[in-house]
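Lecture notes, part 5. Sequence design as translation. It can be helpful to think of inverse folding as translation between two languages: the language of shapes and the language of residues. The source text, in structure tokens, appears below.
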């Protein structure tokens, strides 16, 4: 670790915090404007960003075990039909 402030930090040793992997990772997905507006509207009620509301919503889905009904055949079902 650097003991004193320097203009050049290349000599400094960076130590990764042990909790860094728990933060998750950023992803990019395309969303319709109306979907973004939906989360913006909810966020405005609580002073949160649309991104924060989306993250909270997704976390809620994961922890409650909710599964959306996609109403289409699963990949395993369609692969067996084509053989």
């Amino acid at each position: 670790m650097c003991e004193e402030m320097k203009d050049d930090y290349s000599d400094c040793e960076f130590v990764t915090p042990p909790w860094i992997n728990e933060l998750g990772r950023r992803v990019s997905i395309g969303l319709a404007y109306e979907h973004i507006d939906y989360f913006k509207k909810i966020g405005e009620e609580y002073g949160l960003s649309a991104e924060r509301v989306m993250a909270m919503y997704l976390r809620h889905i994961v922890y409650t075990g909710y599964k959306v009904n996609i109403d289409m055949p699963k990949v395993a079902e369609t692969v067996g039909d084509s053989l």
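The translated text above is only one of many valid answers, since several sequences can fold into similar shapes. Residues 50-64 form the longest helix (15 residues).
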